[in-house]
Specification:
Glutaredoxin; seven-stranded mixed sheet; about 170 residues; about 30% strand; 9 strands; alpha+beta
Length: about 170
């Protein structure tokens, strides 16, 4: 499993973009993780799935509410990752009103989750292989803090915990 001090793995995530601009076309666009984090401070959090209860009712809304405070404390971007496709992440972004606050990134084949060792096996529950629930603070591609939730928990990967770590 990835740990504090490690570099993020090489992976490509997908992001659904609804408005053309900044070199991005409408539709799913690839995001090279290593290029996207270079020289930036990223508050990254991952969830088991879009539109799931805890993710939609607590996790994403907390980061939306704290987005301005996180950015004021030095975070360049806030990323939400899930093992879903880019179209689902785009629809979830609209539903959660994340525009301008969070980047909703799809790890469609769980490549990033596998590379970090932060997978959650939900086979038998109809969800397949997913990402574990966690958050990490990343500076220039290096993991500075890592908060991995226990099974069924939502205690350490929330936006308030991340804000405290950014300010520390």
């Amino acid at each position: 499993m990835i740990k504090v001090g490690d570099q993020l793995p090489a992976a490509t995530l997908m992001e659904y973009v609804e408005v053309e601009g900044n070199g991005c076309s409408i539709g799913p666009n690839p995001v090279d993780v290593q290029k996207a984090v270079a020289g930036k401070t990223i508050a990254l959090f991952a969830v088991p799935g879009a539109f799931t209860p805890t993710c939609s009712n607590k996790h994403v809304p907390g980061y939306v509410a704290q987005a301005d405070a996180l950015k004021a404390a030095g975070v360049d971007e806030i990323w939400c990752l899930a093992v879903n496709d880019a179209f689902v992440m785009g629809a979830w972004a609209r539903d959660q009103k994340t525009d301008g606050k969070l980047r909703m990134l799809a790890d469609g084949d769980a490549a990033f989750a596998k590379a970090t060792g932060l997978t959650l096996d939900l086979n038998g529950k109809g969800l397949g292989l997913r990402s574990n629930r966690y958050s990490m603070l990343v500076k220039d591609g290096k993991v500075v803090s890592l908060n991995v939730e226990g099974p069924g928990k939502f205690e350490v990967s929330d936006a308030n915990t991340m804000l405290g770590q950014v300010k520390a």
